[in-house]
Amino acid sequence: MTKKTKSISVIAAVVAATTLAACGGSSSGGSTGSSGSASGGSANNASASKGGTLYYTSNKPRQTWDPQRTYTGEGISLEGRLFSRSLVQFPVTSDLKASSTPIPDLATNTGTKSNGAKTWSFTLKDGVKWQDGSPITCADVKYGTSRTFATDVITGGPNYILSYLNIPTDKKTGLPVYNGPYKKAGQSYFDKAVTCSGKTITYHFNKAWPDFNLYLAALRAGDPYKQSQDKGNNSNYTVFSDGPYKLQGTWTKGQGGTFVRNPEWSSKTDNIRKALPDKIVFQEGVTPEIGVQQMISDSGTAANTVTTNAIPPASFSQITGAVAKRTINPQSPFTEYLVPNMLRLKNPKVREALAIALDKNAYIQAGGGSKMYAPAYTVTAPGILGFKKNATFSGLPDSGDPAKAKALLKSAGVKMPYPINLTYPGGTPTSDKQFGAIAAAWGQAGFKVTLNGLTDTYYNVVQKAGSTWDVCWGSWGADWPAMSTVIPPLFDSRPNLTPTTTGQDYGSYKSAAVNKLIDKAAAQTDVNAAAKIYDQIDAILGQDYAYIPLAIDKFYRINGSNITGYVNNPAEAMYPDLGGIGVKH
Amino acid sequence: MTTQNTTLNADRPTGNSAGPLLQVNDLHVHFPTDDGLVKSVDGVTFDVEAGKTLGIVGESGSGKSVTSQAIMGLHRGSSAVTSGQVLLDGEDLMEASESRLRKLRGKDVAMIFQDPLSAMHPYYTVGNQIIEAYRVHHPDAKKHEAREKTIDMLSRVGIPNPKVRVDSYPHQFSGGMRQRAMVAMALMNDPKLLIADEPTTALDVTVQAQILELMVDLQKEFHSAIIIITHDLGVVADIADDIMVMYGGRAVEQGDVIDTFGQPQHPYTWGLLNSMPRLDQARQDRLDPIPGNPPSLINLPPGCAFSPRCTYRDRVPGDRCRTEEPELFAMGHLQHARCFLTEADRIEIRGGSDQDPSAGQEAQA
Amino acid sequence: MFAYIIRRVFSGIIMLLLVSLVTFILFFASPVNPARLSCGKICSPALIEQNSKALGYDKPMIVQWGQFVKGIVAGREFPEDASLRKSAPETIATCPAPCLGYSPLNAETVSSELGPRIPVSASLALAAFVLWMVFGISFGIIAALRRGKFLDKLLVSAALVAYAFPTFFIGLFIYQFIALKWGLFPVPVYTPLTQDPLLWLQGLVLPAITLALVYLAGYVRLTRAFMLESMGEDYLRTAKAKGLAPRKILFKHTLRAALTPIVTQAGLDLGLLLGGAIITEQVFNYPGVGKLAVQAATTYDLPTNVGIVILIASFVVVANIIVDVLYGLIDPRVTLA
C-alpha cells in the first residue's frame, strides 16, 4: 500500500523521482567513448525459440509512446526494445557492469568524443530502415533531438540537451533561442550545433558532456524521429517503428494494443534485440489484486504473461513451491531517503542523532519486509557508476541505536524531548505504520515526533520554501547510471532554491564546497574521473547530514510459466526486458 | 355471547330468502395487535329491508365503519378475525368464496366513502374509474357503451357538462362533484344495497343536503337499500328509516327512527342528541358534549361499556352498571336499548332535560 | 409545457456555467501548477514559465474561463499560437465545439478522451439500471405484499446486506471468484455494442450486477415503502369495493401510485451514473468515464477533471429536466409552469 500511495503522489509531481527513468550500472565504471566491445547481448541465442504471443499486463495507462516525451523507466525500456532504436543502447543482461555499458545500436560504435568531451560524433550503420522501408538517415536522428527544444509542444520529456547543445540563450528567459522544428526560430543555430555529414552526426556542446552516450542509451530523447510522421502532440500514441515490432492498428489508452513483427527490421543490423515472440499484446488497467491472482493460477494467457504489477502483500502466502520459482525480486533503481530541513535543524548533532536512531529494519518490516525493501546506505543506487556506501551511514546499525543517539542529543545541549515534525506521503495504514516505527525509535532517543502524513499533493507541500517540517521523505532514481543525474539535481542549491520553492533540494541544503565540486565534476571529460569527485561530494553530504538514507525499493513480481529469457536488467529499470524475453510454444 | 342478543334474535328467521335484504347476525370483527385484541365490532345484529335506509350512528371508533366494511368482506386478507353471519338475500357472505364476493362487490353491494378525494385514484380520470366499475361486472360491454352509460350516470347525479367532465381528473372536481361522481360510480351496476360511509362528512352543509337529497331520490328510483354511516344524527333523521346507535363495538340502541328520536332510550343516545346543534331553537345556550372519551376497544370497561361516562349510572341500584353487562332490552315498539335504567327513570330523566330530544327529527328538514 | 422546457434548459445552462466557473476557481486554488506537470522531471523556472504561456495558464482566470466557455460554443485550438499554426499546422490539436479543454499531460483534447468512454459508462449504467429497476421493484413489491412475513424480511435484509458490502468488495469477489477462480462466467471485457452486441452484453453482465447491487437495496426499500403507502390509500379500498380482481388492483391502482415517485429517484440516479461508475469501472477495468476520472484525479490532470465535472453536471441537469417533464406527464396533478 505504501508503494501505491507513494506512486500516486509521485505521478502527481513529476518533480519526484520515482516514476522516472533510471538505470543501474556497474560500480567499477565502464568504458565510454571508445568503440566498445559489443558483447552484452548475443542476438541469436540458440536455446531461445522464436514465435508465440507474449502478453504484457500493467495497471496504469501509458501516457505516451513518443520517444521525446517519454520519461518513465518502463516507457523508455519498452520503446527502446520494441520500436525506437538509439545510436547506442544497453545490452540485454543482468550483469551490473555490462548493463551500464552502452553498445552500438543504430551507430557503428559507441561514439567518438573530442574537444574535451564537448564534441561527439556517431556514424549510422548501413541497412537500418524505418517500418516503411525508408533508410534511417542522419537527418532523422537530428530531427529527433530537435523536438526536445519545442518545449511548448513536446512536453514532459527529459530536457538535459537544452543546457548542453551549443546554442545561444535568450537573455531574458535563459532558454535556448532555438524553439524546435515547428516554429523554427533560431533554426540556424541548431543546424550549427548538430551537423550531418553523410551518415555521420556530430553534436557540439557548450561544455564537457563525458556521459553523453549514457544519456543516449538510457533515455529515448536522443532517438531518431521521422519528420514526415511528426504531428507534434497529435502523434502522442503514434508508433513509427525502426525496431523489431510495429503497432498493429492503433493504441487504445487504458486498454492497450498489439505489436507485431516489423518486416523491415533485420537482426543483421541489430545485435541487442532477440525479438523472439511473433506478437506482443499489451493489456492496460489490470489491477494488481486481479492480475496477480491470474498470474498465480497461471491459467490461459497468464502463462505467457509478464506483468509490472507488484505482488500485493495479501497474496504473499500463495507464493510457495513452483509459484515462488516464477517470482522475481530485484532491487529497483529508486532509493528512499529522509531529508532534514537545514533551515530548522541547524545543529548538526541533532541531525546526526536522527541518523543514528533511525530504525530502517522497523520501517522495512512495517512496509512488508525484505521482499519490498533493502536497507540503503547512500542516496545513489548500487547500479550507478562510482557507487559506494556512504562512510557516515554504512557503520550505523540497521535497527538504529537510540541510546547512543540520546547521549549525543544530551551532549548537544538542546532541550529534550526535541520536537520533530516528520512529513511523509501518508493516507494508508501501511505508510502510517512505517513512519510510526521510525517515530517510535526516535522517541526512545529523546525526540518528540509529530507524524504529518500528507495525501495527494505531497511534493507540492514539501517543496514550498520556508516549510515548517523538520524531516521529510524523498525518493530518487537516476536518469542514467551516473551520479551526475543524482547529486546535482538533489543537492546543487543554485538551480534548485528560488524564493518560492526548494526544487528537489527539499531540505534547502546550501554548501559552497559542494557546489564548487559539482562544477568541477561537470567539467571532467572522463566519467570515471567525474565519479570520483561525486564520491567526494557524497562524503561531504554525509558529514553534513544533508540526507539520511532509508531503503532501496524492491520489485516483487511474477512471470507466467512459459516465459523464457527473463533477466533483471538494471539498464531497463528492472522492468521486463523485451529485448530477450520469449515464450515457450 | 348469544344470550345477550336473545332479546333481538329470539325469533329471527335465518337463511330465509323471504326475509329482509340484509341480515347481519352477531357480527364480530377483531384485530389482533401488539397491544392486545382490538374488538372493533363485538356482536352486532341488524336487518335492512329493500328500499329502506338504516342509519348507523356513533362516535369515531365505535365500530360503525368496520361493520360496513365487514359486510363487503373488505377485511379479508388482513389480520382481522371475523365471525357471525352476513346474509344478503339469504346468502351468507361470511361463508362465500372471495371470487363470489368479488362478483357481489360493486354490483349487488356498492359503497360510497367519506373523503371522495382520497377515495378516487388521483392518476386516473373520473370517467376511467367509473367505466372500470361498470366493466368489471359487465365484461362484455363495449368501451363506448360503458362510456356513454357513465356520461349518462354523471348527468343523472347532477354533474354539469358530463361529456367533458368525464375526462377530468378527481382533483379537477369540487368536493361535492367528486361525491356525486362517487355516487354515480356506486350506482352504475344498480346495487341492491348501497353502503354510504360518512358520505357527507367532508362536505360543506349545503352540499351535504344536495348529496343526501340525491341519495334519497336515487333510492326511490333504484329501490336500493341503504346503510348510511354517520356521526351526524341530523343526517339520519333526514333519510333513515331505522337507526342503530353504536358504542364500543356494540349496538346500544336500535329501532325505528321516529321512535328512537321521539323517545330515545339510552343515555348515550340522549348525549348524542344533546350534543347536536339545532336549528329549530332560536339560540341555544350551549351544546352538551358527552363527558369523557370513547372507551378503549382492547379493554372495555367492565359492566356497561358506557357506564364511566354515564351521568345516571348511580340510579341503577347495586352498582350494577359497573359489574354486569346489560343486554339489548326491548323497550317500547320495536325499540331496543342496552341499559338497566327503569322505564320510570328514563321518563323522569327525559322529562327533566331542557329540551325535547324528539325535536331532532325535524332538525334539518 | 414547451415554454417550461425552454425555461428549464435555459436555467440548466446557467447552472452549468456556474459549475464550470466554480470548477475553474478550484482548479486555480490547487497547489499543483499544470505547467510544471507538463515539463519533465528536472525543470527550470524559465521552462515552466514558457510552458505556462504556451498552455495559456498565464492568463487571468476569468479570461481562461471565457476561453473555455467559448470553446464549448465555438471550439478551440491547442495551443492557441498563431505562429505555430502558420509554421506547423499539423501539430495543432483542433478541438471542435463543444470543446471541453485540452489535457497537456495526455496530449489529447478532453472531448476525444471522453468520447469513446461515454458509451462505455452509458452501457454499464443502463445495464445496471435495468437490473436494479427490474429486481429492486419486483422485490420491493413482493416484500410489501408479504409485509412482515418471512419473504419480506428475507428480501429486505438480503438487499441491505448487499448494500452494506462496499462495491469494490462485491466487484472483486465477483471478478475473482465467479470469473477467475470458478470460471462460471467469462472474464468481463468491454466490447462496443456496434462491434458485437452479444459480446457487449456478455461483458456487461458481471459489472452491471455489481453496480446494480449498490442500488438494489435502496430501490427495494423505496418500492416497498411506496407500495405500503399506496396500499393504505382510500382509493385502493374503493378499487376493492368495486369488485376488481387483486391482480388488477395491484397493477393498475397500487403500482401506478407507488412507482410514480420512484421515477424521480431513478432518473436522477441514472443521470449521475451516466457520468461514470468510478469503483465498478475501476475494479472491472472498464474504460469508462469513471476510470478516467480516477486517472485524472491521481495525475492532477486538471483540464480533464474540469471536463468530467462539466460532463457529469450536464448529465445531472438534463436528467433533472427530463424527470420533471416526465413527472408532469405521469402525474395529472402536476402542472408544468
Automatic annotation (TrEMBL), chain A:
The answer to whether keyword Secreted applies is no
Q: GO molecular-function annotation terms?
A: peptide transmembrane transporter activity
Sorted UniProt keywords: Signal
> Boundaries of each Solute-binding protein family domain copy?
101-494
Q: What Pfam families does the record tag this protein with?
A: SBP_bac_5
- What's an example GO BP annotation here? peptide transport
Q: Write out the coiled-coil annotation as residue ranges.
A: none
Q: Which SUPFAM superfamilies match?
A: Periplasmic binding protein-like II
Biased composition of type Low complexity is found at 34-47
Task: Quote the protein name from its UniProt record.
Answer: ABC transporter substrate-binding protein
Q: Which organism is the protein's source? A: Leekyejoonella antrihumi
Automatic annotation (TrEMBL), chain B:
Using the UniProt annotation, give all residue ranges assigned to the region (Disordered). 1-20
- What family is reported? Belongs to the ABC transporter superfamily.
| Alphabetized InterPro entries for the sequence | AAA+_ATPase, ABC_Ni/Peptide_Import, ABC_transporter-like_ATP-bd, ABC_transporter-like_CS, Oligopep_ABC_C, P-loop_NTPase
Q: How the protein sits in the membrane? A: Peripheral membrane protein
Task: Mark out the compositionally biased spans (Polar residues).
Answer: 1-17
The compartments listed are: Cell membrane
Listed Pfam families: ABC_tran, oligo_HPY
What's in the GO CC field? plasma membrane
A single GO BP term for this record reads: peptide transport
Keywords linked to the UniProt accession: ATP-binding, Cell membrane, Membrane, Nucleotide-binding, Transport
GO MF terms listed in the record are: ATP binding; ATP hydrolysis activity
> Main site of residence?
membrane
**Entry protein name:** ABC transporter ATP-binding protein
Query: The ABC transporter domain covers which part of the protein?
Result: 22-273
Q: What residue range is the signal peptide?
A: none
> Does the entry feature the keyword Transport, yes or no?
yes
Report the SMART domains cross-referenced here.
AAA
Automatic annotation (TrEMBL), chain C:
> Which segments cross the bilayer?
9-29, 120-142, 154-178, 198-220, 257-279, 308-330
Q: Which domain of life is it from?
A: Bacteria
Would the keyword Transmembrane turn up in this protein's UniProt record? yes
For biological process, the GO terms are: transmembrane transport
Q: How does it sit in the membrane?
A: Multi-pass membrane protein
Residue ranges constituting the ABC transmembrane type-1 domain according to the UniProt record? 118-327
Cite the entry's keywords alphabetically. Cell membrane, Membrane, Transmembrane, Transmembrane helix, Transport
Q: Name one Pfam family in it.
A: BPD_transp_1
Q: Where in the cell is it found?
A: Cell membrane
Give the family, as the similarity comment puts it. Answer: Belongs to the binding-protein-dependent transport system permease family.
* PANTHER family with a match to the protein in the record: DIPEPTIDE TRANSPORT SYSTEM PERMEASE PROTEIN DPPB-RELATED
Q: What is this protein called?
A: ABC transporter permease
- Source organism per entry reads Leekyejoonella antrihumi
